[in-house]
Write a structure and sequence with these properties.
Number of domains: 1
Low-confidence stretches: none
Distance between the termini: 48 Å
Helix content: 10-25%
Strand content: 35-45%
Number of strands: 7
Oligomer: single chain
Shape: globular
Largest sheet: 5 strands, mixed
């Protein structure tokens, strides 16, 4: 049995305003896009944005990055508006 299992915990978060239950301790850029039902097949991941907020904290994720989960975190994901 792995020590990681002891640290896994379920978190309630919101992705594009929809509640989701996910297992932590963290969530990646790619997982947020998948949970937001965004199809990235054949597309450059840099064309997508993932922003998160929790209370007064906020941040962004880039491809390959993760953030430590906390209950109530809110994620917004979608196609970038950068040209």
């Amino acid at each position: 049995m792995s020590n990681d299992i002891k640290h896994e915990q379920e978190y309630e978060i919101f992705i594009k305003s929809r509640p989701r239950k996910v297992v932590g301790p963290s969530i990646s850029f790619e997982e947020v896009l998948r949970l937001a039902n965004i199809d990235t097949d054949g597309q450059e991941l840099g064309l997508f944005d993932v922003d998160w907020t929790h209370g007064n904290e906020k941040g962004t994720l880039a491809p390959g990055e993760s953030v430590k989960l906390r209950n109530g975190m809110r994620f917004d994901a979608g196609k970038s508006n950068r040209s």
